[in-house]
Each structure stands twice: as structure tokens, then as C-alpha cells.
Design goal:
This protein is of the alpha+beta class. It has helices at residues 9-29, 33-57, 65-78, 80-83, 95-109, 115-120, 122-135, 141-171, 175-179, 184-190, 194-197, 200-228, 301-311, 400-409, 416-430, 446-454, 459-472, 546-575, 577-596, 606-612, 619-637, 644-662; strands at 254-256, 268-273, 280-285, 287-288, 292-294, 315-324, 331-332, 337-340, 346-348, 354-356, 365-373, 432-433, 456-457, 477-483, 495-499, 503-511, 515-519. The strands form five sheets. A five-stranded antiparallel β-sheet has the order 8-11-6-2-15. A four-stranded antiparallel β-sheet has the order 3-14-16-17. The chain is elongated, with a radius of gyration of 35 Å.
């Protein structure tokens, strides 16, 4: 076989690229660098092994590769639970299916010695991309899927060319042409296989599949959105290292602020049965880094509880239920302080957040008991003599311009509560809420840049500004992330719905007699049109969905490209004698078929078609039509290439036949 199309390192490299992209997406979806390293490493070793075996060893058991593929697939399917044990809880819950498909892909790489098995690796790869898309924990998977399709399309084109080459060689049709001075590969492109011999047909097919994938995906997503929103999906939380430690630690070690446009859908996450609107805390942070927040307090839980009790001497316990609809965390958002789940193995952290050992342990319906202050917010802030809580008042990282403005805003305020409210109102009036706000420039303090330059952002910069300004005037404050319901009043059944676009960040200040008090500067803030609080930035009405218009635009571009390609092909036919001869044959068979009411069948050659309908062609023209087709086929499938005069001569003969035939009445089909 010609070296240009023979199975070689290029094919195994394309397979390696495609499979590695799928495995990388899985690793990112489960948030595990260990998975990425081991899976891609094993897949690379398997691909190299198969390449060496196919090129040098050529073992006899290559002939039973179908049995080998089935065997390794069964081993991966039934042994997944044991195979994923080294990765701990990474593949708990529904991610176990991704683990199975990953090991099938890896095992396939060790037994891919021929085209069929090499291309078959695309099946588990596509399944993995589909699973990652369903989990929706790695949004960039769609981009990688595009690169995957390109690599597989090129691989498919090479395999397609080899397959047709083998068919042509086995048929013996190339022998004469090869002996006439052409090599086999060039003979392939000159013979009856020319229409499908090269990679063009395979590329066109792959392009159609890619187009359908990118245009169809948003349509499918929109169609199933209302159903998928009610499916409960629990994904493991990688940050939960040790739930039994006896000190406070935020579950997520760090979070960035001012990262640029945010994309949130309106899928329902939780449903809370309670009689009033509340904020539901998921994470808290205390140390400002200049670009975001981190958790640094390490306090004994009893000390922290003592701090809360000192701040809330008059407390009450409220019970409410939270129903998990869709969640990817082992935590449950809670309101109030010292949340507890009676009878459940839940861990109540000292900052009032609540978590279970793993996401799979979170019950669908959780009854929570939380403590609230019986007193309205008033009075001064809680003095924090304890050095272990000093982070709540740490103003060392507050930019000077932010601190100066905080002191200016609170000048003349009589209580810490009044100071906090003034700060909240000042931030509210200064920043425009905009989910499409640009990212903070690298090296700039996110709060200072937003307050004095950009003056646009969403909840994270609002909350961060309030926390830093409160600390600048001596008020203990912390940064909190969580959720707010999509309505301020419960429905008729006393329930609030929390959606994805209810994700929120706010500031909390620690005041005497009332504990941690919410200071949300986004309430009442000016909003950019269509980009305010609870704006659905990834869904909505189908005609407002960007994916829909991207699909329409893509379709329009593809139609324009297709028409341009057809025009180019027509131009090539007019310039190339070979193409011109092909066009003549098509014109003759198409026109004759319409005149005799019988089209050319797929398996008929032009000459066979003319012979089959010869009795329907008027006698003065039948011999000339047959002669034109016979001579055209000789040029098309013979060793002699047509020249421009040859094409012109046959076209002129056909024009004379057609002109004379048109003057005769159309012959009616013979009734049987």
C-alpha cells in the first residue's frame, strides 16, 4: 500500500489526541488532577503499545480483535468499582459510569491494531463527552469536543481512503492503469473509485456530523431543560478532605472576585419550606487576598460556638425543610447559626455551614434546626479580643483609597450598625449591577478597581466592598456565598424555590445582641438592562437564547459555504476536461431519464442505463446517444485523459441530438 495512506504513526497520534481530550474532560469534570494524569498516561502507553504491535510484531491474535475488544470492555464494565478504588470517592454516584467508559477507552487502546478497532475508540470517547455535558461541571468540554471531532474526522478520512484503496486493489481494476505508468494511489483517483477514493467524501461527512452536533445540542438542551431541572444529581465535592476535623474551615479554600461575565441558568436547585424570606449560607471566607477570598481561621469549635452565644444571648430555634432538586455538593445551604440535622450524620461547622460526608449522603429532604436571635439588629459590634478571630477585623489588606472612603462615608454615625448601613448604601449607590461586567485587570485590587474605576460588577464585588469597608472602621465582617430564593414571599404551600441564578454573595457583620447580620448592597442597586439580579444568562425564551442564534448563524454560513462550493465545482468542471466529461455524462443520463420516465439506478453505469432504456429512445437518436456515452466512458475510465477538444466535440454531438429529440413528441411509457 502507498506509504502516504498506509496505517502509521499519524493515525495513532490522531487517536491519542481524540481520546486524551475525552479523558481530560472527565478529569476536569470530577475535579481531579490525579485522574487526568493517570488516565491520559495509561491511554498513551496503550496507544504506543498498539502502534508497535501493528507495525512490527503483527501477532496472529490481531485477527480476533473483535473478541479482544469485547473482552476488555466486559472487564472494564464489571471491574470498574475495583479499578476506581485508588481514586477514593472521585467516582462515587453517577460518575461511576464515566469511570467505566474511561477504562473501556483505555483498555481499547491496548488492542487497537487495525483501522476498525482504532476508529472504534471514538465510541467511548463520544459517550464520555456526553456524560460530562450532562454533569455540566466542566463548561469548556464543548470546546474540547470540537477539537475531538476534528481529530476523529481526519482519522476517519484516512481510514476511508485506505478502505477504498483495498477494495479497488482486490477488484483488479487498478492493474491496467498501474501498468500504464501510474502508481496505485494515483490509479485509484483516476478509476471508478474517484468519487469516493480521496478524503474529501469523509471530510464532508464529518463536517455534516459536526454541524448537526453544534446546532442540535442547544435545541436538545432547550427541549429537555424543564425535565432536567427536576432530576436530582449529586456530584462529589473534591474540597471535602476530612469531615471529622475539630476546627472551623471553609469547604472551599479560595474564591476569586471580579472574574468577568457570569453565566447562570434558571434550573431549580432547592426548595425550602419556611414562612419567611431568608438568605441561605453555603460558604464563608475571612481573608482578603486582593483578587479574592480565602478561609484562614482555625478555631476550636467550642470557642466559636461561645463567640456566637455571646453575640446572641437571646436565641430561638426554628425548623424548616430543604428539598434537594439538583446539587453537586456535599453541603446543604442553611440560614441562621448553629444549624443541626437531628438524627443525621451531618457535620455542623463552627461558621454555621452544614455538610455531609459525601454528596451521595445528602438526603433528598433535610429537616434543619437553626438558631436565630430574638432581637433586632442594634448596638455596637462584638469586640473580638481572641486572636484566633482577628481575621474578621483584619484591615491590613484594605487599600488606602477604600479605607479613606469608608471613613468618609461613616463620619458622624453613632453606632456600628449605622456605620454598616451607611457603607452598604454607599456601595449600593456607587456600583451598577451588571452580570456582563468585564474582569478586573491582573495586578489590580478588585475592590479598589470596581469602586473607583469600573463601577460595574455583580454580587461578589458588592459584598467584598462592604466587608473591607466595614473592617476599615473596626466592624467584624466576613464574605459569604450561598443562595437567595427567586421570590420574597412563599407560594401557597409555604415553599420558596431556589434556582441556579439565585446564587449570591453578600457581607455579614457581627453585632452584639443579633449575631451575624446580613448586609446585602445589591438590594436596590441600579441594574444594567437585562443583566441584573436573578437574570437567566444561559436560558430564557428560545428566541432570546444566544445558542439559538449561533445555530441559525452557523446554518446560514454552512449554506453559503455549500453554495460557494457548488459554484466552485461548476467552475472547475468548466475548466477541467475530466470534470467537463463527467458533467456531460450526468447531463445526458439525467435528460434522457426525464424524457423516458425512467431514472438511472444507483448500481447502473451510464452505458447500462442507456441500454436498459434504448427501446424508449426514438430510433434516429438511440445509436448516437449510446455512442456518445460509450466514448465518454472510455475517456472517464480508460487510461487516456480527455482534452478540451474531445469534451467540446461530444458536447456538440449531444446538443444536436437533444435539439432534434426535443422537436419530437414525448414518448408515453408502455402500459403493462
Amino acid at each position: 500500500m502507498d506509504k502516504r495512506i498506509a496505517l502509521g504513526w499519524q493515525d495513532y497520534l490522531l487517536s491519542l489526541i481524540g481520546g486524551s481530550l475525552a479523558l481530560y474532560s472527565v478529569g476536569m469534570a470530577v475535579k481531579s488532577n490525579e485522574v487526568i494524569l493517570y488516565f491520559i498516561g495509561a491511554f498513551a502507553v496503550g496507544t504506543l503499545f498498539s502502534f508497535v504491535m501493528s507495525r512490527f510484531a503483527k501477532p496472529s491474535w490481531v485477527k480476533v480483535e473483535g473478541v479482544l475488544l469485547l473482552t476488555v470492555a466486559l472487564i472494564a464494565a464489571f471491574g470498574t468499582k475495583n479499578l476506581v478504588k485508588p481514586f477514593g470517592e472521585t467516582f462515587d454516584s453517577v460518575f461511576l459510569v464515566a469511570g467505566t467508559m474511561s477504562f473501556i477507552l483505555i483498555f481499547f487502546s491496548f488492542v487497537s491494531f487495525r483501522d476498525t478497532s482504532l476508529l472504534f475508540q471514538a465510541v467511548p470517547s463520544i459517550a464520555l463527552f456526553g456524560l460530562v455535558g450532562c454533569y455540566d461541571t466542566f463548561r469548556e468540554a464543548a470546546i474540547l469536543f470540537g477539537f475531538f471531532l476534528i481529530s476523529i474526522a481526519v482519522l476517519f478520512a484516512r481510514i476511508h481512503t485506505r478502505t477504498n484503496y483495498e477494495f479497488a486493489m482486490n477488484s483488479g481494476v487498478l492493474d491496467g492503469q498501474a501498468s500504464a505508468g501510474q502508481n496505485n494511489y494515483e490509479s485509484l483517483k483516476a478509476g471508478p473509485w474517484r468519487a469516493m477514493a480521496g478524503p474529501q467524501w469523509a471530510f464532508y461527512s464529518a463536517a455534516v456530523i459536526m454541524l448537526l452536533s453544534f446546532i442540535g445540542a442547544p435545541v436538545v438542551q432547550f427541549s429537555v431543560q424543564s425535565v432536567a431541572g427536576n432530576v436530582r444529581l449529586n456530584l462529589p465535592n473534591r474540597a471535602n478532605a476530612n469531615p471529622n476535623r475539630n476546627y472551623f474551615r471553609t469547604e472551599q479554600s479560595a474564591v476569586q472576585v471580579g472574574r468577568g461575565p457570569v453565566r447562570l441558568g434558571d434550573s431549580p436547585l432547592y426548595q425550602v419550606t419556611i414562612d419567611r424570606f431568608l438568605y441561605y449560607r453555603l460558604q464563608t471566607y475571612d481573608r482578603w487576598t486582593g483578587s479574592g477570598w480565602a478561609g484562614s481561621i482555625r478555631a476550636n469549635e467550642n470557642d466559636y460556638i461561645g463567640l456566637v452565644e455571646r453575640a446572641m444571648p437571646d436565641r430561638r430555634v426554628e425548623r424548616y425543610q430543604i428539598t434537594v432538586i439538583t446539587s453537586g455538593s456535599n453541603q446543604v445551604p442553611v440560614a441562621g447559626e448553629k444549624a443541626d440535622v437531628p438524627g443525621m450524620a451531618a457535620r455542623t461547622a463552627s461558621d454555621g455551614t452544614l455538610s455531609f460526608a459525601t454528596a451521595g449522603n445528602v438526603p433528598p429532604v433535610t429537616s434543619i434546626e437553626a438558631e436565630f436571635s430574638n432581637r433586632e439588629p442594634s448596638g455596637p459590634a462584638v469586640p473580638l479580643q481572641e486572636t484566633k478571630f482577628a481575621a474578621y477585623t483584619d484591615a491590613s489588606r484594605v487599600p488606602e483609597d477604600v479605607a479613606n472612603w469608608a471613613r468618609e462615608v461613616t463620619q458622624g454615625a453613632k453606632t456600628d450598625l449605622e456605620k454598616a448601613n451607611r457603607i452598604r448604601e454607599a456601595v449600593r449607590d456607587r456600583i451598577v449591577y451588571d452580570t456582563e461586567a468585564g474582569a478586573v485587570p491582573a495586578g489590580s485590587d478588585a475592590v479598589s478597581h470596581t469602586l473607583f474605576e469600573a463601577k460595574r460588577g455583580y454580587c461578589d464585588v458588592f459584598a467584598s466592598s462592604v466587608v473591607l469597608m466595614c473592617r476599615a472602621v473596626g466592624i467584624p465582617a466576613r464574605y459569604v456565598t450561598g443562595f437567595i430564593p427567586d421570590a420574597t414571599e412563599p407560594d401557597s404551600d409555604g415553599r420558596f424555590l431556589i434556582r441556579e441564578n439565585g446564587s449570591h454573595a453578600w457581607a455579614e457583620v457581627l453585632l452584639q445582641d443579633s449575631g451575624w447580620v446580613v448586609m446585602d448592597a445589591t438590594e436596590g442597586a441600579q441594574e444594567a438592562e437585562g443583566r441584573g439580579r436573578r437574570t437567566n444568562t444561559s436560558g430564557g425564551e428560545w428566541w432570546l437564547n444566544p445558542s439559538f442564534w449561533i445555530g441559525v448563524g452557523s446554518l446560514a454560513v454552512c449554506i453559503a459555504l455549500w453554495q460557494g462550493l457548488r459554484a466552485f465545482q461548476r467552475w472547475r468542471k468548466s475548466m477541467n476536461p475530466q470534470r467537463g466529461m463527467e458533467g456531460l455524462v450526468f447531463d445526458v443520463t439525467d435528460w434522457v431519464g426525464k424524457r423516458v420516465d425512467r431514472g438511472r439506478l444507483a448500481y447502473e453505469s451510464p452505458a447500462e442505463f442507456v441500454a436498459a432504456v434504448r427501446d424508449r429512445i426514438p430510433e434516429p437518436h438511440a445509436n448516437e446517444v449510446a455512442a456518445i456515452i460509450t466514448e465518454a466512458e472510455r475517456y472517464l475510465f480508460g487510461p487516456i485523459e480527455p482534452q478540451d477538444p474531445d469534451v467540446a466535440s461530444l458536447k456538440e454531438r449531444w446538443k444536436r441530438v437533444k435539439d432534434l429529440w426535443q422537436k419530437e413528441p414525448k414518448k408515453k411509457p408502455v402500459e403493462v
